[in-house]
Amino acid sequence: MKKTIALLTGGTTGEWVVSVKSAATIAHHIDAELYDVYKIMLNDHGWFYEPADSVKIEIDRNDFSLTIEGRRIKFDGVFIAIHGSPGEDGKLQGYFDMLHIPYTTCNALTSAITMNKGYTKAIVNDIDHLYTAKSVQIFKGGNYDINQIKQDLKLPYFVKPNSGGSSIGMTKVKQADELEAALEKAFKEDPQVLIEEFVSGREFSIGVFSAKGVVTVLPTTEVIPANEFFDFEAKYTPGAAEEITPGNMNEEEYERVHEIIKAVYTKLNCRGVVRIDYFLEHETGNFYFIEINTIPGQTATSFIPQQVAAMGITLKEFYTSLLKETIG
């Protein structure tokens, strides 16, 4: 018997554009013989289903149900495809937990913690063979000393919104006098900001998911951006970065990276598919953790679809395995 799935897209941050594209990919590849899918848009104006031939139909948020022509539709589960708030930060997960509706992502606690780059680094810091760049976490209106930060950290460094995504509000600071402007830019996106020393290394991004109780690491993608770093333009403009899937790692690096990725996934109590970004430092080959994305992009240019293809399975098979693992 078919299951009825809500595919939740949109959101309330600048990442909503990416979310809509991700949902389009997912909707196109979900197995229609197994699932009836209703794409639900969530934004500042409401939560609604918009059929092609009619006006918007509001979701009843009391029980997350939909009424179409007198027929009440309740969902067996939710495929959350919202990047940023409220899809990736635990808010929606908490809501669905209270309604006892299963969903495809990490739970509320893991989602909330991993949206905070500084807190995430603190948790994964003691995993074997994993390194983290030296950093300072500051709060808007907090008691921080700009001069002390400049003394404590070596240039260049990245200034980034602590809970942001898609590199929005991020700056690479090369001169100390650029720090204030970079902080102002980041604070427009988030009341917490992370200032992190630059790691000179090759950049990779790798997906990992659990299916049939087994944690599986996807082929990694090596990222060679044409820009100064892998910014929003490079992430979402075809041709703005060279992306090599599978990325070039030797056998020892491959085995070490897979063990670290599985350890991060397990320690953070992840569920569904997540993506972990990392550097392999030029001089040492050390693995430096950058960040984790618990709702990674699924657009035509995103890494996960590339990596699924490199693994030799279809997106239909992949999404079916995710839905069976998380929703049943």
Name the features.
18 strands, ligase, Rossmann fold, D-amino Acid Aminotransferase, Chain A, domain 1, Dala_Dala_lig_C, D-alanine--D-alanine ligase, 7-stranded mixed sheet, cell shape, cytoplasm, 328 residues
Plain-language structure description:
The protein is 30% helix and 30% strand. It is α+β, with helices and mostly antiparallel strands. Strands 8, 13, 14, 15, 16, 17 and 18 form a 7-stranded mixed sheet that branches. A 5-stranded mixed sheet has the order 4-3-2-1-7, with helices on one face. It has 3 domains: 3-105, 3-Layer(aba) Sandwich (Rossmann fold), CATH 3.40.50; 113-132 and 200-326, ATP-grasp fold, B domain (D-amino Acid Aminotransferase, Chain A, domain 1); 135-197, Dna Ligase, domain 1 (2-Layer Sandwich), CATH 3.30.1490. The protein is globular. A hairpin with a 7-residue loop joins strand 3 and strand 4 (57-58). Helix 2 runs antiparallel to helix 3. The model has no long low-confidence stretch (mean pLDDT 92). Its cofactor is Mg(2+); Mn(2+). Belongs to the D-alanine--D-alanine ligase family. Residues 117-324 form the ATP-grasp domain. It comes from Pedobacter psychrotolerans. Pfam families: Dala_Dala_lig_C, Dala_Dala_lig_N.
SSE order and pairing:
Layout lengths: L2 E8 L5 H14 L5 E9 L2 E4 L7 E2 L6 E4 L2 E4 L2 E4 L10 H9 L8 H7 L2 H8 L5 E3 L2 E5 L6 H7 L4 E5 L9 E3 L5 H9 L4 E6 L3 E11 L2 E4 L3 E5 L6 H5 L4 E4 L6 H17 L5 E9 L5 E7 L9 H9 L3 H12 L2
